[in-house]
Write a structure and sequence with these properties.
Length: 521
């Protein structure tokens, strides 16, 4: 067996050698070349490659040289408007801006020219004017205006505007500017866009006082020829809350659509109206709530009324008006059911809402009331009325109440929400009026021996909404002014230093029973 394996191995090697020798002999026979001839051919091949390399390098350098000349000439061409800037460039640009955008810009002589990123003029300290009862009113102060021009007409010395950019501008809007803004929106935009960056809008009363303002990161104003749409898209902050604003007018359907989103609050607005139609519709989505509002303008006011609106799954009806000059509002509302636990949101949202940039803004004035005849999680109470009056940097809640028609009513005689050292505070005086003493004592499990002839219970309370800490500053029975009572004083002291806690209905019932027992009348 071993000999057979060795023989087969030798035979395989032999056949391999024969095959290789035949292949080499055929290769050299085919080309009929000697070893020397192969060296000569290799040298010739090497020389040819070097020549090709030098030729290609020359062509590359030549191409780069030509491209450099072309690029230089192109830069020279782009520089023409700056090199031959006429003395009338200020007036020329003002007239062309007026024709293109129908806006009255007052340019300064401080005009520079730049070719990067695209050819444009740079003008500093520009003013935009509007008409006001026979004279020009300053509508905007612009720190920097860029006017981009078409580069196809430089040899003709004809500046054709492609777009403009406004940066670091302050816009001052008054009631007299509404007609100007309305005309600007309704007369159609230019296909050559307007872009605005890092600017602010201030709304001023007729007396010149700033009522509100918001900041703008950017605004894009343009006309879409393909869709036949005028568009105004903006991002910014109002009351320190980021927003996205999208306004469109569709020339085909004659419909104006406005969208506003405040993403941190999960709040969005959708306004639709037909051109020249007095009645308009506004839809507001807030989490699971949907507010559908019909409204119209009357003199200096907006008259509004709800149309099939819901807060969560509960029917929500409201009506009222918003006055534009001076700005304030009066709105009355009623909700089908109200969950008392959901009135106060979490701490982060509380800090955003009750801030000087939002509800506690010094320029915010108005009145809003809400009532419900079905109160959930009210324990003792089943109806609620909240009167809120927004008066600058505080919210007045006086005359609000929680009601149990069979037993009694908890009235807020006066109360305010305000900021103090970055804390959101509530301070108020309450009075509890007893309608039916028997029902009341049964509800609070007061024994007949301890039952007294009590008509009203008065108490004062401060509540820190930032850290959810409550303090009682007085309790009085049948008298709206504090009286000396050691038992009541001890109860107040125990509550304020947290030795007495009220966190459920049982602990509240026990605390009320102790208050009633302290009355000696």
């Amino acid at each position: 067996m071993k000999k057979f394996k060795i023989q087969s191995f030798i035979q395989k090697g032999f056949f391999k050698k024969n095959i290789l020798s035949k292949l080499f002999s055929k290769f050299f026979t085919l080309f009929n070349m000697s070893k020397g001839a192969w060296k000569i051919s290799f040298n010739q091949f090497k020389k040819k490659n070097i020549e090709n390399y030098l030729s290609e390098k020359f062509r590359l350098n030549y191409a780069l040289f030509v491209l450099s000349i072309v690029f230089f000439l192109y830069l020279l061409y782009l520089s023409i408007p700056g090199m031959v800037m006429s003395e009338n460039i200020q007036k020329e640009l003002e007239e062309k801006l007026k024709r293109e955008y129908n806006l009255d810009f007052a340019l300064t002589p401080d005009i520079n020219y730049s070719i990067l990123p695209k050819p444009h003029y740079i003008i500093k300290d520009v003013v935009l004017f509007t008409e006001k009862t026979g004279y020009q009113k300053e509508f905007s102060q612009i720190k920097r205006l860029k006017v981009f021009i078409d580069q196809n007409n430089f040899f003709k010395m004809n500046n054709v505007i492609k777009k403009i950019e406004i940066k670091d501008a302050n816009f001052f809007i008054e009631k007299s500017d509404f007609n100007f803004i309305d005309n600007f929106l309704n007369n159609g935009f230019s296909k050559n866009s307007i872009e605005i960056f890092k600017s602010k809008i201030f709304y001023k009363s007729n007396e010149g006082q700033i009522v509100s303002f918001f900041t703008l990161e950017n605004i894009l104003i343009f006309y879409d020829e393909l869709k036949k749409e005028n568009s105004l898209i903006s991002k910014g902050k109002i009351f320190n809350i980021p927003f996205i604003f999208d306004w469109k007018y569709d020339e085909n359907s004659k419909e104006i659509i406005t969208k506003i989103k405040l993403n941190p609050l999960k709040l969005s607005f959708l306004n639709k109206s037909k051109k020249n139609d007095e009645n308009k519709n506004l839809k507001i989505n807030f989490k699971r709530s949907k507010l559908n509002t019909n409204y119209f303008f009357k003199n200096d006011s907006i008259i509004l009324k709800s149309n099939n609106s819901f807060l969560g799954t509960n029917k929500f009806e409201y009506n009222g008006k918003i006055n534009l000059d001076p700005f304030d509002f009066q709105i009355e509302s009623e909700i089908q059911r109200l969950d008392l636990k959901k009135i106060f949101p979490n701490r982060n949202i509380l800090n955003e809402i009750f801030s000087k940039e939002f509800l506690l803004n010094e320029n915010l004035n108005g009145r809003f009331t809400i009532k419900s005849n079905s109160l959930n999680n009210g324990n003792f109470f089943n109806e609620i009325l909240i009167n809120s009056n927004y008066a600058g940097e505080k919210i007045e809640l006086s005359n609000s109440k929680l009601l149990n028609k069979k037993i009694g009513s908890l009235n807020l005689d006066y109360g305010n929400i305000y900021l103090e050292e970055n804390d959101i505070l509530f301070k108020g005086k309450f009075s509890f009026e007893i309608f039916d003493k028997d029902r009341f004592y049964r509800k609070f499990l007061v024994s007949k021996k301890k039952q007294k002839n009590i008509e009203r219970v008065y108490f004062g309370l401060t509540y820190n909404l930032s850290n959810f800490d409550a303090k009682i500053f007085f309790i009085s029975l049948n008298n709206d002014k504090p009286v000396e009572n050691d038992s009541l004083d001890n109860l107040i002291y125990g509550f304020n230093n947290n030795s007495i806690t009220i966190n459920n209905w049982i602990s509240l019932r026990s605390f009320v029973s102790k208050i009633l027992s302290s009355y000696s009348g």
